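Forum: Protein Structure Q&A
Topic: Joint prediction for protein chains with partners

I've read a bunch of threads here and the consensus seems to be that you should model interacting components together rather than docking separate models afterwards. I'd like to see that in practice. Below is the full input, 1090 residues plus whatever partners are listed. Could one of the regulars post the assembled result?
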Amino acid sequence: MSKKNKLRIIPLGGLGEVGKNMMAYEFGNDIIVVDAGIMFPHNDMLGVDYIIPDFEYLLKKADRVRALIITHGHEDHIGAIQHFIEQINVPIYATPLTRGLIEGKLARNDAQHKARFKTIQAGESSNIGVFKVEYFHVSHSIPDAVSLGITTPAGLIVHMSDFKFDHTPVDGWATDFAKLAEFSTRGVDLLLSDSTNAERPGWTPSEKVIGPAFDKVFAEAKGRVIVATFASLISRVQQVADAAVKSGRKMALAGPSMVDNVKIARKLKYLEISDDVIVPLEQALSMQEHKVVLMCTGSQGEPSSIVGRLSAGTNRQFDLKPNDTIVLSSHPIPGNEESVSKTINRLLRRGAKVIDDGVAPIHVSGHASQEEQKLLINIVRPKHFMPIHGELRMLMRHAELAKEVGVEEENIIVVENGQVVELIGNKIQLAERIPGSYIFVDGESIGDIDHDIMKERSQLARNGILLIDISLDKRTGKLLHDPEILTRGFVTSEEAETLLPEVRKRVMKVVNEGKNSEKDIVSTIKSYLHQETKRKPMVFVTLSK
Amino acid sequence: MSKKNKLRIIPLGGLGEVGKNMMAYEFGNDIIVVDAGIMFPHNDMLGVDYIIPDFEYLLKKADRVRALIITHGHEDHIGAIQHFIEQINVPIYATPLTRGLIEGKLARNDAQHKARFKTIQAGESSNIGVFKVEYFHVSHSIPDAVSLGITTPAGLIVHMSDFKFDHTPVDGWATDFAKLAEFSTRGVDLLLSDSTNAERPGWTPSEKVIGPAFDKVFAEAKGRVIVATFASLISRVQQVADAAVKSGRKMALAGPSMVDNVKIARKLKYLEISDDVIVPLEQALSMQEHKVVLMCTGSQGEPSSIVGRLSAGTNRQFDLKPNDTIVLSSHPIPGNEESVSKTINRLLRRGAKVIDDGVAPIHVSGHASQEEQKLLINIVRPKHFMPIHGELRMLMRHAELAKEVGVEEENIIVVENGQVVELIGNKIQLAERIPGSYIFVDGESIGDIDHDIMKERSQLARNGILLIDISLDKRTGKLLHDPEILTRGFVTSEEAETLLPEVRKRVMKVVNEGKNSEKDIVSTIKSYLHQETKRKPMVFVTLSK
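Posted by a regular:
Agreed with the consensus. Here's the joint model:
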């Protein structure tokens, strides 16, 4: 088989949701990249703000990269664009709303001038190098989302990014079944599909079910309604606005990303909210409480968000009032359950009424569940199947579903990020693993935090530190003064009062016995501290001679 | 109303599940304490092993404490007994299995001699001071669990600890409905009830559903089956043994607490497993793979557990084999979702088949859901209701359920730990809040870790540390040598190469300008580091003159 017919499929990034944040398709001298999003840090990634995919592989072949295609405007698909185009400045292909949201985000970071866009529309196609990319509409929790049919010399690929089969979506625009059926007729060589909900039986409910739930909450609320969701969950804003109109409330938006996104989506006509429904936040705060709904961020319990600050009583612009109803219109992202739960407890403790998706259907998933995933495979009838967008456990479940609906087991391939897959001679196979992992972003530093640093942070965090400062007489090697000792995160001040003099005594003893190397002192003190407290702080000695 | 008729109800501990780990009832000069368990640390409680309730309040009145009554043998009800009896050595009232499990736990910590026991049986009662305590059986995920009817001069209290209304429990011993009905006839002044599943609609499935699920897994597994659960989930051990017999497998136990608990429960006849079913672990490891089931701990993804070590490839006694099926027979404790998920991904990556409660019904909750909670209230028909065993969000939901089934709103009281409640003149009211919070156990230190230390640890963890060591000439105030700089958890070694020389330069400049106080140096360097990295490590200066 000629090497010329080899399509390489490269999911980039560290462990996590496969190909969600970035996926590359490479054929000969042409590479197209799909999405450039961020991942949110796990609980044990101390001090990390967010994670971007490692695209080192692409940097080496930067001259072959032809396009960055963005499927929709959510953070996990657009959040790393700025970092990407700073290093590989190719045109960004995006639908109008997606483009608007990206531009807004870049503008907030003063980086809008760096981007070149090609606006695309669902139903259109682009020829990019050897690839022909057909964009088709999918319903998701944000309008104007697309998935891709990619015709390559190695075969026809269908790349399903985040989607659901919602027959009654908020914008009335369902997934393009006809296009999927058309691909099927042409013969699909490889289907890649969203595995987010592969562990969830049945069908994901339509966004439509949220309407009546909101209506009920808005009607019953005695005071203000405060709806928290993601700033990029544009469809939810429409639903809140509709409920506001029905209940005779005005809507105000809080938080710069929420304000920006709604402005863009309204301007581009993806949100239909008439001017008299939206009032400035200041005005809303002085209106009668039962005439108001506030929309803000913080549904994931982030301490720095508006809801996080309301729960802690530290929000500047406004505080909770006794009759407030807080609606958390999202589901906790895996790993955030504890933080969301704490936030809810704090809000209740401060007297608010809280409604989450366990109490009323004020949120539905934006991703296809098992029956939809099976339906997709049955419509597309691909020869090969590769589950993407999910952790390994979900991918494997999705692979099982594919097998159930008739894809041959040997034609299903499950990989994690960094594992290159090749489609060659109408066969799918594993190729090499490329180095690459998480790129942690912390402050302004990109990639300056690695797993070693994380490990050190975890050591610091587990038991704290103890510093010993010693000055020795150059000639005699004797102590010039008593050792100074400082601790953080190790013992309470009470405990320190009895423990630290003992540490000092032992340091002096060791030094006076002539064992005055840093190593000797550290090991003596470490074993003493462990014996006394069963804890192992990091011990540092600074020694001046 | 005479002060003499006042019953005080005191849920002890920090925020968390109310009255779950410890609850005190006080009347005049008599205090009885119900349960003494531990809480597991939240993700942001860095370096904490576990948490015990703060019973400072009881220490002051230690001479009035008459009894420690333990409802069942789970860690969150027995884990703090050792700490408790070290300070308040009262008799421990427990049913035979609960007693056995406590004795085993104390023996493992070499503390068995400290405990005095009174063995009780469901159906019996004890007169303890002014209190008459009636023990009655409840079904839960451990045999020999009881709840309490407490007759006090202020009225009849029903204290429902962990329970479910399982009509077909593993041991065939259902909750004592007749006793509940009898209390109801006598007139219950206050019902306290388990709120764990107050957010869960419907009925909790019977433990019986697990049997067929296990049978299927055991029959289909090509190789070994490894079942992970809590060491104290004694009922699950019976179910695994039954499935082992049916599928012609032998069972081996791994891990000291699992081995101990099963030994005790078998000896006391709470487990019916014949001798030929259980084989030593070493023997099991050399048997044919499809003839074996191993039971161990680690269903919560704890890195130090057997399953945690298997997932990381660091288990000493045995390793994963290609045909292994791992059954995680529990549900993630809130806050553990991420860690469980990571463990599952690691096990899959290492080639094991993994079955959790999302794949097959191999676990059911041990706690009553909404319909059971409502049924309980309707059987007992209490005048007053106080939800316990749950976070605030669950308590409030439980309170709503009570209202729905007819308890008067003003007779329902929702409090968190540390809030004393009084029952007086057949009215329920809030009394004072007692100081008290989490007591963190870290290593051997009990209570030596407080929130300040946790805050310092979190600061250390977020951005790491930077140490600067300076020696100045005593006379001239000039630097004796270049400052030494050390960092941990802050920058990679590459980044350090360019950053640290700059830091050194700036320290020298500041010192040479005569601003050689620690404060001056710290503030200069902190602002430099923030400017360069947007991060804020803790900066320490040790200064020798």
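The radius of gyration of chain A is 28 Å.
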